[in-house]
Design goal:
The complex is a heterodimer of chains A (about 775) and B (about 475). Chain A contains 15 helices and 35 strands. Chain A is α+β, with helices and mostly antiparallel strands and about 775 residues long. Among the domains of chain A are: about 140 residues, no CATH class; about 180 residues, YVTN repeat-like/Quinoprotein amine dehydrogenase (Methylamine Dehydrogenase, Chain H, 7 Propeller); about 120 residues, Methylamine Dehydrogenase, Chain H (7 Propeller), CATH 2.130.10.10. In chain A, the strands form 10 sheets. Chain A has a 5-stranded antiparallel sheet with strand order 12-13-14-16-15. In chain A, strands 7-35-34-33 form a 4-stranded antiparallel sheet, with no helix packed on it. In chain A, strands 8-9-10-11 form a 4-stranded antiparallel sheet, with no helix packed on it. In chain A, helix 2 packs antiparallel against helix 3, helix 2 crosses helix 4 and helix 4 packs antiparallel against helix 5. Chain B has about 475 residues and is mainly beta. In chain B, the strands form 8 sheets. A 6-stranded mixed sheet of chain B has the order 24-25-26-27-32-31, with no helix packed on it. A 5-stranded mixed sheet of chain B has the order 2-1-5-3-4, covered by helices on one side. In chain B, strand 35 and strand 36 form a beta hairpin. The longest helix of chain B has 12 residues. The chains are: A alpha+beta (about 775), B mainly beta (about 475). At the A-B interface, strand 7 and helix 14 of A face loops of B.
Chain lengths: ~775, ~475
């Protein structure tokens, strides 16, 4: 009974708003059950809210009591739920109840069968005791469990307090019951799948369902076919259609008669003179013009002259016009082949002559985008930012004008240009040569120990003498002056004074030369005691007569030194000469000045700084030039002091040549340089000529013409024009004229000595190839 | 070539023929002739011969604007850019036959000098009818100091021994007299006798002339006045007489003295004479000397001092000096043109007008040699041609009518023929003419061009038909 009461109470608790008919009955019945179990909830539930349905309950209870099936109340409950479907506002009152009971605990404590306290909870109103207000109202209180689980049981689940919920009555018993009573209002004969109760639908609900099944709008009062409101159509709302399919009217193609008429009218008027093309300006027009003229207008830019740019204006550099290689479709010869392409790619970016490779595109539209655009823009910006533009004052100088004005070699003729004669006969190198003062003969000496005299024009050997079989002839030098014909030849340690006999000289010259050479013996004999008494040390050299065989050949005097002399230079008068023996052990005797007429030898230098290389006399002044390996010192012989010291800057001087005026000195060096010293200018060379590939062996000024020539180990001679102006206001002009080739380089040696004809522009050279060449 | 219309008409050009040789002059009334431009030298020569009505055709050469016609007229006009519508002035000259190699006479040493004796030679002409016309002799002086006389069969018929050094010059003074000079500073006269037996002759010294102090490089002879001119390295020109009676005594200082042992070996002492006069004036050695062809009292000398001097021999004075830019090595008088041809060290021949009225020194330059020109000889047949011998190893034949103007109003001529040394054939050519230098050249009408040189040979070249 209590269970039933609970069930009933539970059913009652489901909100159901209406059913006001049997209020009293329900209240009573409710109170009974409720007081037994839980008074609080009973009290709460008291009210008029569930009166209507209680009327139904009463009926059902009665019927159930009479029946054995304990589900009459449940069935009523299902009906209640179906009723819930039709009405939506039935739970308002229940809500108010919930609010009233908010503060109290929703359970009571009872004692269960074991005597333990038992908490009996009040029924949960799903609408107010649950947070989920949007959840659909549950008609089923057994949870979300299919009814099939309870098919074997008489109940269909449990309520919150564990009491069974009985299965609603159905089947034959129910059918019979139903058959016995009238079909209730809203009976459908269907079972609610969620509750298992018979589904009852109200008339309105059925109506709705009916409309839905007919695809009709279910709502009431909805007119599916309302009257049309004519917003855009109708009278006065017609829209004019702009397009038309109508054919063009004919008048569009026919000249307009009207226009023709009008034109003809104008034509007629012009013909009749009613319309004049030119209308004479009226008074009004003139006035207006005058008024305009009063406002004098000026074109201030009419006579503007092009002005020079501002001083700070830096015009952009003019770019060259694009060439073929810039084309997108260049001719094939401008396209790089693979080698060029590879070379371009291997080149450093800064070294490339242009920053792109010509590429061929069949059409302009096939030219791809310029890949370096961003990079270039960036670099340009970087340039502008990092590199401020500086105005550089540009010098407008023609580079040609900076070059010294050199005369044309053709204007500087004569100078030797070709080899005229080759004198062959020497075995081994020709070490030295000299033109005789008259210019008729060339004397040469070589490694074979012979001295030979040649006719320079024909190349005929006119005279020869063998001085030694082992020692080379190092120097030959003619005594200057035409009053005698004396050749000095240094072979080994001996200086031979030779008067070539036979056809090369003349009898009276021979006699004069012999007398001149013999006079020394006479002087030496008569002044034997005085001679060594000079300021210098006694001579260590010996003047003597050679053997009879040599005397027969013309060697009249010999002078023997301590070491082989490599240079012999005459004083211009022909009485003094100097010898230089670079390889001597005693440095003080390296340079000796000899007097031919007295057979005297002096060593002017007690001590010499550096190794003596060469020496010569000044042509007019009592000056003496001594070249050591790196320096040239000029001594005044009269004052016996150092006059000047030159620093040619050469590492090893090979030779020197003094200009016939005595103001300029040419220095040849083994380090390929030829140095021009102007003695008026200072210690440093006035000009350095570096044209040879190998060491320069010899250099010679022409005795009368403004020419000089040098000979080098590279086998060439170089002829220069070297004009010296006497007034020392003007610097000397040096013009390279000609490279003379012809000597063969033998054992790294080419031209060993050069010399000039005394008057003509003929040079003569001694070659290591054994030839003497005359160049004219 | 002009287009031929229907095969019978060709381009024609109007030419005006002229000549400087009086013997082949055309009649006065011969005006310009219209000739086809296809004509070449041979056809023109035939044409002129027909006009001259010569019995035997004379081969002629044609000069247009100073150039020899070697092609057809049309090609010549095209090459020189001359219009065919102008009247061409064509000068015709007797053709020079190319001198072909005939023979070489081998010597022991370099040949310094050659001369020819033949009927048409100068010496024979001076001798007049005393000369037996049948023989031709070639005289050569060598660097071995010997004189040799050759016949035309390349046999030495006589040898002259007497010079103590190289002979530098040798000349036939007459068919019986030879003059020579050399490095030994003397001139020697020789008596030359053709023996009756063929192939033998004798050269006997007759006179020694002393006076020069250096080598005598060249001599010139004039038999009618018995004068010898010598060019010496001692800067003087000597005038000598061939007659012992005329000559003064030789200067003592220059005679070979007793202390010269080698001179003592000469057993037979010859008469010794000195110079009639020594002409001083040159600053350097005198290289060559020649008589004026027309006037034997005038002589010209060339020197290394770049000058040509005109000497009046009767007064022994220098009349005129012409200075050029180069050393001069040889001289030759061309009387008809009043020019002196001088060979220079600068590898060309300068033609100098020695007359006082001449405004320019150099009338013309003949270019083509590659080394010094040391010998010149006139063409005996023509007054316009000459031959030169050079150290470059060639002899060149020149025609002074063949001239062109170059820049700077310089008149330049080119050689007509070049005679190479036969010994140099097949050898690489050297610029300096090493080994084949020509030292002397002579041109005779009958013998041809005779030249001697460094190759130790006398070479004879002759135009075949002359």
């Amino acid at each position: 009974m209590a269970q039933r009461a609970g069930q009933k109470r539970k059913v009652v608790e489901v909100p159901r708003p209406e059913a006001e008919e049997s209020e009293d009955e329900l209240v009573n019945g409710e109170f009974d059950g409720a007081l037994v179990d839980d008074g609080d909830s009973e009290e709460e539930l008291s009210g008029e809210d569930s009166e209507g349905e209680l009327e139904d309950d009463e009926d059902a209870e009665v019927e159930l009591d009479s029946d054995e099936i304990p589900s009459s109340e449940d069935e009523e409950d299902v009906r209640q739920q179906l009723q819930d479907l039709k009405t939506s506002n039935g739970n308002t009152d229940v809500k108010q109840l919930g609010d009233d009971a908010g503060d109290e605990a929703n359970y009571r404590i009872t004692t269960d069968a074991n005597g333990n306290p038992r908490y009996v909870y009040g029924e949960i109103d799903p609408a107010y005791d649950s947070d989920d207000s949007d959840a659909p109202a549950t008609a089923n209180t057994i949870g979300d469990i299919p009814l099939s689980y309870y098919d074997a049981y008489p109940h269909i689940g449990y309520d919150i307090n564990g009491r069974r919920i009985n299965r609603p009555a159905k089947g034959e018993a129910l059918d019979s019951l139903l058959d016995s009573i009238d079909l209730p209002k809203g009976w459908t004969g269907l079972t609610d799948p969620t509750t298992g109760k018979a589904l009852q639908l109200s008339r309105e609900e059925l109506e709705v369902l009916k409309k839905l099944t007919r695809n009709e709008v279910p709502g009431e009062g909805y007119d599916p076919y309302p009257d049309m409101v004519e917003y855009f159509t109708g009278k006065g709302m017609e829209e004019v259609m702009p397009l038309s399919a109508a054919p063009e009217p004919k008048r569009r193609f026919v000249p307009s008669m009207h226009e023709h008429k009008r034109v003809m009218k104008i034509v007629k008027a012009i013909r009749e003179g009613r319309i004049k093309p030119y209308r004479a300006p009226t008074e009004e027009d003139k006035e207006r013009e005058e008024a305009e003229a009063e406002f004098a207008t000026y074109d201030v830019w009419a006579n503007e002259q092009p002005q020079p740019d501002h001083i700070m204006n830096i015009p952009a550099p003019k770019l060259p016009p694009p060439g073929y290689e810039d084309s997108y479709h260049p001719p094939p010869e401008y396209l790089p082949d693979t080698d060029e392409k590879q070379a371009w790619e291997e080149q450093d970016e800064e070294d490339r002559d242009r920053d792109f490779l010509p590429r061929d595109h069949a059409a302009l539209r096939k030219v791809p985008g310029y890949e370096k655009l961003i990079k270039e823009k960036f670099e340009r910006c970087l340039d502008l930012y990092l590199a401020p533009r500086v105005r550089r004052s540009k010098l407008n100088i023609d580079p040609e004008s900076l070059l010294p004005k050199l005369p044309d070699p053709a204007e500087l003729k004569p100078f030797p240009t070709t080899c005229a004669t080759v004198c062959k006969g020497h075995e081994g190198r020709v070490r030295t040569l000299a033109f005789d003062p008259s210019g008729k003969f060339v004397a040469s000496g070589g490694d074979d120990g012979t001295v030979r005299v040649w006719d320079p024009v024909t190349g005929r050997q006119c005279w020869r003498i063998k001085l030694s079989s082992s020692e080379p002839v190092n120097v030959v030098s003619w005594r200057p002056g035409t009053d005698a014909f004396i050749l000095a030849a240094c072979c080994g340690e001996t200086v031979h004074f030779i008067v070539p006999q036979g056809s090369v000289s003349s009898p009276d010259l021979e006699v004069a030369s012999q007398e001149l050479l013999d006079s020394g013996f006479g002087y030496a004999a008569t002044n034997a005691s005085k001679a060594p008494a000079g300021p210098d040390k006694p001579s260590s050299s010996a003047w003597s007569r050679p053997s009879a065989a040599l005397q027969e050949r013309g060697v009249l005097v010999t002078l023997t030194l301590h070491s082989p002399p490599k240079t012999l230079a005459w004083h211009r008068r022909g009485d003094y000469f100097t010898t230089v023996c670079p390889s001597t052990a005693a440095v003080s005797t390296a340079i000796a000045i000899h007097t031919l007429s007295k057979h005297q030898t002096q060593h002017p230098f007690k001590r010499l700084r550096g190794l003596a290389q060469s020496a010569c006399f000044h042509p007019s002044k009592p000056l003496f030039f001594v070249a050591t390996r790196q320096r040239i010192r000029i001594y005044d012989l009269q004052a016996q002091k150092l006059e000047k010291e030159l620093q040619p800057g050469a590492r090893w001087i090979s030779g020197m040549s003094l200009h016939p005026l005595g103001s300029n000195l040419l220095v040849a060096s083994y380090d390929k340089r030829l140095l021009w010293h102007d003695l008026d200018l200072g210690a440093m060379p006035y000009k350095t000529l570096r044209y040879h590939a190998k060491a320069i062996r010899s250099v010679a000024f022409h005795p009368s013409l403004p020419l000089f020539v040098d000979g080098s180990d590279d086998g060439t001679l170089q002829v220069f024009h070297g004009k010296v102006v006497g007034d020392s206001l003007e610097n000397a002009t040096v013009v390279p004229l000609k490279v003379l080739r012809g000597h063969r380089v033998a054992r790294e040696l080419g031209v060993l000595e050069v010399a000039w004809h005394p008057r003509e522009a003929w040079a003569v050279s001694a070659g290591a190839d054994g030839a003497v060449r005359v160049w004219t | 070539m002009a287009t031929q219309v229907s095969g019978d008409r060709t381009a024609q050009v109007r030419i005006h023929l002229k000549t400087r040789s009086s013997d082949i002059e055309l009649p006065e009334d011969t005006g310009p002739i219209l000739v086809s431009t296809e004509l070449k030298r041979y056809q023109l020569s035939t044409l002129v011969n027909r006009l001259l009505e010569t019995e035997k055709p004379i081969p002629l050469e044609f000069l247009i604007n100073g150039q020899f016609l070697r092609t057809s007229i049309d090609e010549f006009l095209t090459q020189n850019g001359i219009s065919a519508e102008t009247t061409l002035s064509v000068e015709y000259v007797k053709a020079l036959i190319p001198p072909l190699y005939v023979a070489s006479y081998e010597h022991d040493d370099w040949v310094s000098s050659v001369d020819v004796l033949s009927q048409s030679s100068r010496a024979a002409q001076w001798a007049g009818d005393r000369y037996d016309a049948s023989t031709q002799r070639i005289l050569s002086g060598g660097y071995d100091g010997l004189l040799r006389v050759w016949n035309m069969s390349s046999e030495v018929v006589a040898t002259g021994q007497g010079h103590t050094a190289s002979v530098k010059a040798a000349r036939f003074m007459s068919p019986t007299q030879v003059v020579s000079s050399g490095f030994d500073r003397t001139l020697r006269l020789w008596k030359y006798e053709d023996a009756e037996a063929a192939g033998t002759a004798s050269l006997t010294p007759t006179l020694e002339l002393y006076g020069h102090k250096a080598a005598v490089d060249n001599i010139a002879v004039h038999a009618p006045s018995s004068r010898i001119l010598s060019a010496s390295s001692d800067h003087t020109v000597g005038i000598w007489s061939t007659k012992k009676a005329e000559g003064p005594a030789a200067p003592e200082s220059l005679l070979p003295t007793a202390n010269k042992r080698r001179k003592l070996s000469t057993a037979k002492t010859l008469p010794q004479r000195g110079p009639l006069s020594l002409l001083l004036g040159h600053q350097s050695q005198v290289s060559d000397v020649c008589f004026d062809e027309k006037d034997a009292t005038v002589a010209y000398s060339s020197s290394w001092d770049h000058s040509v001097k005109t000497w009046d021999l009767t007064t022994s004075t220098c009349v005129d000096t012409r200075t050029t830019a180069q050393s001069l090595f040889s001289i030759c008088h061309l009387p008809e043109a009043s020019l002196l041809a001088t060979g220079t060290v600068a590898r060309h021949i300068t033609l100098i007008d020695p007359r006082a009225s001449a405004t320019t020194i150099s009338a013309m330059t003949l270019r083509g040699h590659t080394n010094a020109v040391v010998s010149l000889a006139r063409d005996p047949n023509s007054s316009y041609q000459l031959v030169s011998g050079s150290h470059d190893g060639t002899c060149k034949v020149w025609d002074i009518r063949s001239v062109r103007n170059e820049a700077g109003s310089e008149r330049v001529g080119d050689s007509v023929y070049t005679i190479e040394r036969e010994s140099a054939k097949g050898k690489p050519k050297s610029v300096a003419g090493e080994g084949v230098k020509v030292f002397s050249v002579a041109w005779d009408r009958e013998v041809g061009v005779v030249s001697g040189g460094e190759d130790k040979r006398v070479q004879i070249n002759k135009g075949l038909s002359t």
